[in-house]
Automatic annotation (TrEMBL):
Protein family: Belongs to the glycosyl hydrolase 7 (cellulase C) family.
InterPro entries according to UniProt: CBD (IPR000254), CBD_sf (IPR035971), ConA-like_dom_sf (IPR013320), Glyco_hydro_7 (IPR001722), Glyco_hydro_7_sf (IPR037019)
GO biological process: one example: cellulose catabolic process
Protein's name according to its UniProt entry: Glucanase
Gene3D superfamilies, per the entry: Glycoside hydrolase, family 7, domain (2.70.100.10)
Keywords: Carbohydrate metabolism, Cellulose degradation, Disulfide bond, Glycoprotein, Glycosidase, Hydrolase, Polysaccharide degradation, Signal
Enzyme Commission number(s) from the entry: 3.2.1.-
Chain intervals with Low complexity compositional bias: 392-445
Enzyme superclass (EC): hydrolase
Catalytic activity: Endohydrolysis of (1->4)-beta-D-glucosidic linkages in cellulose, lichenin and cereal beta-D-glucans
Occurrences of domain CBM1 (ranges): 447-483
Organism name: Staphylotrichum longicolle
UniProt signal peptide: 1-21
Region Disordered, annotated ranges: 392-450
Length: 483
């Protein structure tokens, strides 16, 4: 791309009517990859849903009609965007190139890659974060209180330090769509989670005061081939249980249960089933247990723990001041957005997930540079996503506690997380990972860029390193930012 393409784009944009708002731009149409999912009932079986996925707003090029980025080295361009209304008049947000962003779908299968080779031949981190979208261009609101959720996952290419994540956040269904943000969920806006991330836009509106955006988060799976966990993170009074009261089989003492060749054999796909069980068995009761089991080769895998892989309300003391498991259940009852990501962690090497008491990895092997050098192909595959009545989404030939139903899932499942202080923090800060900047921008430079500052992109000659603890994240071919 570079100047030539940029000026072509700029020329093309210049002849278009100026849209009102950081409204959808027209240089890249937004085409959501379709992803078949199923909603199930005990009596009616599973019905296919018309769903697709949408890339998060922050990964997109936001620019003026002439092609100037609306974000600068000091964050948002305060001239173009002194306030939401002016920003909306000046700036456009572009559609995403999903393949380049590391996201592909086929039928009911979603593949997400950590690294992609750019047109310049250089492999760099893309680390996508995406959401499940309905045919009405709003997020699908999953109401899982008293229900279960199942999917197949292939984590065989995720080494120590990598995290394939599937989780729920209580985002606004429209992504905060409003007259200044006509795209909303269709362009992936409105992200929030239990780490209360500070973002340039909050619920679709320009964030001019640096406030964080907290919301209830339920991590159904944070995992690689060596370790895994599941973790509720309830919130109350604009604060959240950031560490969460999760379950990770390894940190619970079952160190030979999950991994390549182990009981849950992560060298092959398996099914993960998660149940949100209420005190009275209804979809309106109080959430008292989160249960997890796995299916592989058609068979339910017994838990290593005598009581099963379970999070109980009583065991969730860290969440007590944030509404506890019951508060998590209320959010699940209201409806939450399904998010997927793949990322790694330059700051902590994902040790909270897979090292020390949490897993078999060394403290250093999860370093992103190590992953890039040895596992540039690392990718997570999610498929056969289903939700609905307990016992309706997964079927096995024997053993487990789940009842049979009309659905046919073949593999097995598993997952758990431990109380990982950082688990959610990583998710929030996020999902984005330190990405390598395109080749033209990787020249060493003595200076370091500050938070929000530009650190790469076509034609960028400024600093390419970020001041700690920020990492340079590629937003598009023209812009990378210290986040
Ligand atoms: C999916 O779209 C098709 C075609 O528009 C429609 O017939 C079907 O009812 C939709 N399914 C659901 C679950 O909405
Ligand atoms: C997000 O924006 C939508 C649309 O404007 C609004 O209805 C909703 O209340 C907002 N949510 C929060 C938490 O501010
Ligand atoms: C920041 O701005 C938002 C939107 O105007 C407002 O709701 C929030 O209370 C403000 N927060 C602070 C800390 O000023």
């Amino acid at each position: 791309m570079g100047k030539t393409l940029q000026s072509i784009v700029a020329t093309a944009l210049a002849v278009l009517p100026l849209a009102n708002a950081q409204q959808p731009g027209t240089s890249t149409p937004e085409v959501h990859p379709q992803l078949a999912t199923w909603k199930c009932t005990t009596n009616g079986g599973c019905v296919q849903q018309n769903t697709s996925v949408v890339l998060d707003w922050n990964y997109r090029w936001i620019h003026t009609a002439s092609g100037t980025s609306c974000t600068t080295s000091s964050g948002i361009d305060k001239t173009l965007c002194p306030d939401q209304t002016t920003c909306s008049k000046n700036c456009l947000i572009e559609g995403a190139d999903y393949t380049a962003a590391g996201v592909t779908t086929s039928g009911s299968t979603l593949t997400m890659r950590q690294y992609m080779k750019g047109s310049n031949g250089v492999t760099s981190s893309v680390s996508p974060r995406i959401y499940l979208l309905g045919s009405d261009d709003n997020y699908v609101m999953l109401k899982l209180l008293g229900q279960e959720f199942s999917f197949d996952v292939d984590l065989s290419t995720l080494p120590c330090g990598e995290n394939g994540a599937l989780y729920l956040s209580e985002m606004d269904a429209t992504g905060g769509r409003n007259s200044n943000n006509l795209g909303g969920a269709k362009y992936g806006s409105g992200y929030c989670d239990a780490q209360c991330p500070v973002q340039t836009w909050t619920n679709g509106t320009l964030n001019t005061n640096g406030s964080g955006y907290c919301c209830n988060e339920m991590d159904i799976l944070e995992a690689n081939s060596r370790a895994n966990g599941f973790t509720p993170h309830p919130c109350a009074n604009n604060n959240c249980d950031k560490s969460g009261c999760g379950y990770n089989p390894y940190s619970s003492g079952y160190t030979n249960y999950y991994g390549p060749g182990l009981t849950v054999d992560t060298s092959k796909p398996f099914t993960v089933v998660t149940r949100f069980v209420t005190n009275d068995g209804t979809t309106t009761g109080s959430l008292t247990q989160i249960q997890r089991y796995y299916i592989q080769n058609g068979k339910t895998i017994p838990s290593a723990a005598p009581g099963g892989d379970i999070i109980t309300a009583n065991g969730c003391s860290s969440a007590a001041s944030f509404g506890g498991l019951a508060g998590m259940g209320q959010a699940l009852g209201r409806g939450m957005v399904l998010a997927f990501s793949i990322w790694n962690d330059a700051g902590g090497n994902m040790n909270w997930l897979d090292s020390g008491s949490n897993g078999p990895c060394s403290a250093t092997e999860g370093n992103p540079s190590n992953i890039l050098a040895n596992n540039p192909d690392t990718h997570v595959v999610f498929s056969n996503i289903r939700w609905g009545d307990i016992g309706s989404t997964a079927q096995t030939s024997g053993g487990g506690s789940q009842s049979s139903s009309s659905s046919s899932i073949k593999t097995s499942t598993s997952t758990k997380t431990s109380t990982s202080t950082k688990s959610s923090s990583t998710l929030s800060t996020s999902t984005k990972t330190t990405s390598t900047v395109p080749a033209t921008t990787t020249k060493p430079s003595g200076a370091t860029q500050t938070h929000w500052g530009q650190c790469g992109g076509q034609g960028w000659n400024g600093p390419t390193a970020c001041a700690a603890p920020y990492a340079c994240q590629t937003q598009n071919a023209w812009y990378a930012q210290c986040l």
